[in-house]
């Protein structure tokens, strides 16, 4: 099945470049596969690069599961400066240097004591979290006061690597520290940077962020699609010169389908699977419950032909029920 007939069902692992939004990547994939039914599993900020899982066709129904997978990031934290957004895209916040810059040993000690396991984290005001139906970043950009509540997140890995003393563009003495973090969905790495800076009294923000993995989908996946950022200038209706960035896939449109992770492989990477018979597949597609047991959200697959039938969950002690069903493979 090709991209031209609108029948693609599966996932793309896109290595998002810096300077474009996750929605820009979705737009680039839509243009390449000539389909509207395209979505992504977990937003990356424009500054960030790395793994963005993009679903097409029936696989868009897998995205709500994938978005909850653990994430792994490589980042650089700059100690000695704080910004409005807690990353390099924000404006510097004036703050007195109340404390000396920490050394890498001090940072590792604080990380091991305070930033492992389940912690309470307050997201940055410039985030996609909705407040009374509006995105927090829209409120913050409009000058409104945004106060978000702390929420639990889980840090399963927080490795502190190399540290490099440096001078920032404005001459401030700073310390750039490389870290690798594996965390639960909903964790803001820039909030970790901010909170570390507050602990040392010197401020901190992210200067680089790269997502290495979303669950089992990794940046070195053999199917990965790389992309680059292309800018263009134009004059708007007010006569102003505007620069607009867009995402461009590095794979020719005719070759994009070759990078697709097919539906059956996609569900096996995204969640546990259970084998069902063709009769059970028919029942599930009619919304009926069948006998069985699953640990958490799973996918029902007819193993003989790789037909992905449904996403299922436990209904009671003896039966499972479909929460989403897929049409039979042609």
From TrEMBL:
E.C. number(s) listed in UniProt: 5.4.99.25
NCBIfam families reported for this sequence: TruB
Family stated for the protein in its record: Belongs to the pseudouridine synthase TruB family. Type 1 subfamily.
Domain of life: Bacteria
Residues spanning the signal sequence: none
Domain Pseudouridine synthase II N-terminal: 31-189
Limits of the tRNA pseudouridylate synthase B C-terminal domain: 190-235
Primary role: Responsible for synthesis of pseudouridine from uracil-55 in the psi GC loop of transfer RNAs.
Protein name: tRNA pseudouridine synthase B
InterPro entries (alphabetical): PsdUridine_synth_cat_dom_sf, PsdUridine_synth_N, PUA_sf, tRNA_psdUridine_synth_fam2_C, tRNA_psdUridine_synth_TruB, TruB_C
Catalytic activity: uridine(55) in tRNA = pseudouridine(55) in tRNA
